[in-house]
Specification:
The chain is an alpha/beta fold. Helices cover about 55% and strands about 5% of the residues. It is built from 30 helices and 13 strands. The strands form three sheets. Strands 4-3-5-6-7-8 form a six-stranded mixed β-sheet. Strands 9-13-12-10-11 form a five-stranded parallel β-sheet, covered by helices on one side. Helix 6 (about 105-125) runs antiparallel to helix 13.
Length: about 675
């Protein structure tokens, strides 16, 4: 408990750690990079507030507060927080059914949901739930981001054309309303928006020293101000009051409103964390910085709480500003702090310039940003990689376009978790055979398998959710291979096994024992072996059932498998050990029966010597092949190989008979041929 409290205190002490470890030689780089990012943050915060259906000043309030707090308490040195496209469109989607667009209640609800989302993120960080982000697949993130980008793109049709389009309308509705109002398009606004889009795409060919979005908006603003474009009906940003963000009057005890906002706050918290952590890890892949997801949760949580308290909106990380911070030479989190201070200073110094920015120019900028959210390469990679993830991506994309965004992202997350559980609950059970060089194991895929021994790869954990599937699939394999009596399980992909898994293995072993065979293992991991030992399963099998992979087939071939099957009934050469084995396949469909009932008596060498020197010595029949017999045999023994014994059974004397072979396995088959006679002993 004390260690946990210390870890929580460490999360909140991040600013102190940053100050103590700050490298002074990074101050100049952080300062200029922070100013560069701050100049981009100013117009973007205005644009994202408008995108969320909020007054532009709300975006600036968030830029001044959330950016600074998120940097001081976050983990990444380059993540730049504040208003973002995703958080803005999600805020609009959540609040439209709750409060009228543009009303004071709408603005208050935006600040309230920012605080609620921040509290959820903060709790998740304190509870060390950073690992939960890994359960949200790329398919969900890519599908949701692409859908959000398309929504943003179509929602800018109204601002860029000055048409009256219902806020938050679906894409078909937007298209329908645009088509019915084509004659009412405000051409000056459309020209300004189109010019902004064209400049954003053309300016990088001229210079990359200044971000294209910032430079294009600056050029368009200056030109439209010179032409006094407002007289032609073009809408501008309007007056922006300078000064520090005021405290919001939040309805802390309005239980009804809190209940309405809770679902949306959860969606904002989850998708915002996914966005911020993804950005942090993407940039860390270039810098080599270690990212602490829990610390990032705390930073994003505090950033949203402060943003809401100071009349701001929900926030997250911004990929383009974070990437710009890295490209501009920023070294530490001070870059984001300076960008927030730049936004604060810029509001006071540049308030008049910000007020004359044409809204169609902001709409054009958002359209370009929205197109950038559709990751075509990522979608193509997911489509090629996994059909299951491709389905999740497409469904998430469609739901994002048709349902409120909070339901779309939560549905996507549930589908992602369901897909994960489905995959873990249905591990692959694959029959394998040696490759042509007998060095590796390959999937059988219709290639011949041994009629006595089946080698199976178990590719997944043996926990309660998968045990039934594994048991069913293994029993199905055994039913497909009726002659198989021995099963060798390769367990290198099994990292966990619980009691349910042990029971499934016990069922498989009982099935094999009924057939007269057994179950063997190779490459059992230490954790799984420990579970087998404490459950008694290891003792039940015995250590001889756990084999070394390099010698497993050799052991089973020479010590366990029935050579009579290998020589007389099987024409396959599956294993290396089969290659030089003499094959004398019996004609037609003849088979040598197995011995049922009481086993013959075994006799040792001394007892055999005494029996051979008794008044009535037994007949000794050596059932090995002639070349084996010639290498060494018991004096006086008669060689009748199993292949001949079928037709020469009557030539065997009617008295006591001793059957001889190397391991006793062929003697059992010979005993089955002679059952009902006076046979009682073998060696």
């Amino acid at each position: 408990m004390i260690d946990y409290l210390r870890s929580v205190i460490t999360l909140f002490a991040q600013p102190i750690r940053l100050i103590r470890t700050y490298p002074i030689d990074a101050l100049r780089a952080d300062f200029f990079a922070g100013i560069t990012v701050g100049l981009v943050l100013l117009p973007q915060s205005l644009a994202f507030a408008i995108l969320g259906g909020l007054p532009p000043i709300v975006g600036l309030y968030s830029a001044m507060t959330a950016t600074i707090v998120g940097a001081l308490w976050g983990s990444s040195s380059h993540v730049n927080g504040g208003p973002s496209t995703t958080s803005a469109i999600l805020t609009l989607s959540v609040l439209l059914p709750i409060a009228p667009l543009g009303s004071a209640e709408f603005v208050t609800a935006a600040s309230m949901i920012a605080v609620m989302a921040g509290i959820i993120r903060l709790i998740m960080g304190i509870a060390r739930l950073g690992m939960l982000i890994t359960f949200i697949s790329d398919a969900v993130a890519v599908g949701f981001t692409a859908g959000s980008g398309l929504l943003i793109l179509f929602n800018q049709f109204g601002p860029i054309t000055k048409l009256s389009i219902s806020p938050g309308a679906s894409i078909p509705t937007i298209v329908q309303e645009t088509v019915t109002q084509l004659t009412a398009i405000h051409w000056p606004s459309l020209i300004i928006g189109a010019a902004t889009i064209a400049l954003i795409y053309l300016l990088p060919y001229i210079t990359r020293a200044v971000p294209a979005a910032l430079l294009s908006m600056t050029i368009v603003t200056i030109v439209t101000a010179f032409l006094n474009i407002e007289q032609y009906g073009v809408r501008l940003i309007g007056d922006i009051p300078p000064g520090f963000p005021p405290l919001a009057q939040l309805p802390w005890f309005d239980i009804g409103l809190i209940g309405q906002l809770l679902n949306g706050a959860l969606a904002l918290a989850i998708i915002g964390l996914v966005e911020a952590v993804a950005i942090a890890r993407a940039i860390a892949s270039y810098t080599g910085q270690r990212i602490d997801s829990n610390q990032e949760f705390v930073g994003q949580g505090l950033a949203n709480i402060v943003s809401g308290l100071f009349s701001g909106m929900p926030c997250s990380g911004s990929f383009n500003r974070s990437a710009l911070a890295y490209q501009a030479g920023g070294k530490t989190a001070l870059t984001a702090v300076i960008s927030g201070l730049t936004a604060l200073a810029g509001t006071a110094i540049l308030s008049q310039l910000l007020a004359i920015i044409p809204r169609p120019a902001i709409a054009g900028t958002l359209m370009v940003a929205a197109l950038g959210m559709v990751d075509r390469r990522g979608m193509a990679r997911i489509w090629r990689g996994s059909r299951g993830e491709a389905v999740i991506m497409i469904i998430t994309l469609v739901l994002t376009l048709t349902l409120p965004l909070q339901f779309a992202i939560l549905t996507g997350v549930l589908m992602s978790l369901g897909y994960y559980l489905l995959r873990t609950a249905t591990p692959r059970i694959e029959t394998v055979v040696p490759d042509t060089a007998f060095r590796h194991w390959d999937p059988a895929h219709g290639r011949p398998t041994c009629p006595q021994l089946l080698v199976v790869d178990l590719q997944g954990d043996l926990y309660f959710g998968a045990a039934s599937h594994v048991e069913e699939m293994l029993l199905r394999l055994l039913n497909q291979h009726r002659s198989v009596r021995y099963l060798l399980l390769r367990m290198h992909s099994v990292n966990h096994c619980d009691v349910s898994g042990i029971r499934a293995l016990e069922t498989i072993r009982r099935t094999l024992r009924v057939r007269g065979g057994d179950l063997y293992f190779v490459r059992v991991r230490a954790g799984v072996m420990y579970r087998m030992q404490i459950s008694g399963f290891y003792e039940q099998l015995g250590p001889e059932r756990f084999l070394d992979e390099d010698t497993a087939i050799d052991f089973l071939f020479h010590r366990v498998l029935d050579p009579a099957v290998c020589i007389y009934e099987c024409d396959r050469r599956v294993f290396r050990e089969c290659q030089e084995l003499p094959k004398q396949t019996l004609p037609g469909h003849l088979t040598i029966p197995l011995l049922d009932g009481k086993l013959p008596t075994q006799i040792n060498a001394r007892a055999l010597w005494e029996a051979l020197h008794s008044p009535q010595p037994p007949a000794v029949i050596d059932v090995r092949e002639p070349r084996e017999f010639q290498r060494g045999h018991i004096p006086g023994a008669r060689n009748i190989p199993l292949s001949r014994l079928i037709s020469e059974r009557d030539a065997v004397p009617a008295g006591p008979v001793v059957l001889v072979c190397r391991s006793g396995r062929r003697s059992l088959r010979a005993a089955a041929l002679l059952v009902g006679r006076t046979l009682r002993r073998k060696c």
